[in-house]
Amino acid sequence: MIPGVSSRRRFADLDEQEVLALAISSEEDDARIYRSYAEKLREDYPATAKIFDGMAEEEDGHRQRLIDLHKKRFGDVIPLIRREHVAGYYSRRPVWLIENLGLERIRDEAAMMERDAEAFYRKAAQRTQDADTRKLLGDLAAAEAGHQETAVGLAEEHLGAEAEDEESRVAKRQFVLTWVQPGLAGLMDGSVSTLAPIFATAFATQDTWTTFLVGLAASVGAGISMGFTEAASDDGELSGRGSPLKRGIASGVMTTVGGLGHALPYLIPDFWTATITAIVVVFIELWAIAWIQNRFMETPFLRATFQVVLGGALVFAAGVLIGGG
Q1: pTM above 0.90, yes or no
Q2: Which of 60, 78, 220, 266 could be 212's S-S partner, Cβ–Cβ 3.0 to 4.6 Å?
Q3: Is the residue at 59 inside a domain?
């Protein structure tokens, strides 16, 4: 490769055989992606996995039709040309970037794949002079556009109302276990456990900058500790709680945020202004924790509020008493 010169070909410079070869490799890649999605989803979302199995079979059929046309026009030897060889050609995200996201995100990615393929076939059909090739590419463009209908038809076959409701419940449960539960634990730990050192320092020194530094250190230290503890405590294989990395990030970030919420007001130079602001922030934090418990953990709101407020009040009082003494 010559430095400064792109190794990619422009789509406009491809001949008809190369366009067919590109379409063949693209269909093969898309079928493999759909099967990867199906395999990823099969255990928790078996009905949706069957939908992706069906879409993969559709792509196999397209690929075979393209191969048959290539043999008819150019022979058995298909040039090796892939997406990455063509400048400006649509790319596919690596499967591992998508498969760990939610069910709806995977479905959205599949819809985008179909739109990209439709646009390619329409553009390719405009460039060919051969009637059979133009017809096939046009048919495939229409087929890709109709894949949304195919997906709907497969959904009706495999994803009835009961199965869809069950998959929605599983998706919600997984979201709660992977993100909400460790994040909530982190937010509670960061908000409540840092109350005592921050307010003890505040009332002992009445120095806002010192109080802020103590709050910053306590929040960041607690965030790092909670994050590593959550990630190391359970690999998620047996418990089904999901990726330890995701849980560790959720726990660590929310722990830090919970502590910083009432540490940041001490950037205000005036002690009482900073303290009153911090107390208001604490109230908002405790209310947010109670709301999350009610919204995602289905804890009755009054009980959640009582538990959180009582715990927070006791820790806050301890900090004030220690610092004021």
Answers
A1: no
A2: 266
A3: yes
Q: Are 71 and 2 in contact (CB under 8 A)?
A: no
CB 20 within 8 A of CB 69: yes
138 and 181 in a common domain:
no
Name the range with the highest mean pLDDT among 72-86, 100-114, 161-175, 296-310.
72-86
Range of 139's domain?
9-159
Q: Is 107 inside any structural domain?
A: yes
CA 134 to chain centre: 39
Write out the two tokens for 243: 């990726």
φ and ψ of 40, to 5 deg: -65, -40
State the Cα–Cα distance between residues 220 and 203, nearest whole angstrom. 22
Opening angle at CA 61, ends 52 and 141, nearest 5: 85
> Domain boundary residue among 159, 177, 194?
159
Better pLDDT: 207 or 106: 207
Question: What pLDDT is recorded for position 217?
Answer: 93
pLDDT in tens, 193-234: 888 889 899 999 999 999 999 999 999 999 998 888 888 877
Residues 143 and 221 in one domain: no
**Contact at 8 Å (CB) between 259 and 222?**
yes
One domain, residues 140 and 182: no
Rg (CA), the chain: 29
Cβ atoms of residues 16 and 133 within 8 Å:
yes
Q: Where are the beta strands (DSSP E) in the chain?
A: 9-10, 86-87
286 or 175: whose pLDDT is higher?
286
94 lies in some domain = yes
**Number of structural domains found in the chain:** 2
Q: Within a domain: residue 2?
A: no
